[in-house]
Amino acid sequence: MSYFKKCINIIFVVSNIRQDMSVIYLLLTLSILVALIFFIAFIYSVKKGQYDDSYTPSVRMLFDDELIIEKQEKSTLD
Amino acid sequence: MNSTQCYHCGDSCNDGLITFDEKSFCCNGCKTVYEIFSENDLTCYYNFQDNPGAIPSEIKGKYDFLDSKEIATKLLDFSDVNIEIVTLYIPHIHCSSCIWVLENLHKLNEYVSASQVDFPKKKVRVSYNSAKTTIKEIVLLLSVIGYEPYISLEDYESGKKAVDRSLIYKLGIAGFAFGNVMFLSFPEYFEVDGFWIEKYKNIFRWLMFFFSLPVVFYAANDYFISAYKGLRSKILNIDVPIALGVSVLFLRSSVEIIFDLGTGFFDSLTGLVFFLLLGKFFQQKTYNFLSFERDYKSYFPIAVTKITKDNQEETVQIYDVEKGDRLLIRNEELIPVDGILINGNADIDYSFVTGEADAVSKKSGDKLFAGGKQLSGSIEMEVLASVSQSYLTQLWSNDVFQKEHKSHFKTITDSISKNFTIAVLAIAIIATLFWLFKDVNKALNVFTAVLIIACPCAIALAAPFTLGNMLRIFGKQKFYLKNATVIEQLAKIDTIIFDKTGTLTTHKENTISYDGIKLNILENRILKSALRASNHPLSRTLYNTFSRLDSVPISKYEEVVGKGIVANYNNDVLKLGSSNFVLNSSDSSNLDTAIYISFNGVYKGKFTFKNSYRKGVKALFLSLKNRFNLSVVSGDNEGEKNYLQKNLPKGTKLLFNQKPEDKLNVIAQLQKENKKVAMIGDGLNDAGALAQSDVGIALSENINVFSPACDGILDASKFSKIATFINASKKAIKIIKYSFLLSLCYNLIGLGFAITGNLMPVVAAILMPLSSISIVIFTTISTNILGKKIK
Question: CA quadruple B365, B370, B376, B382: dihedral positive or negative?
Answer without folding.
Answer: positive
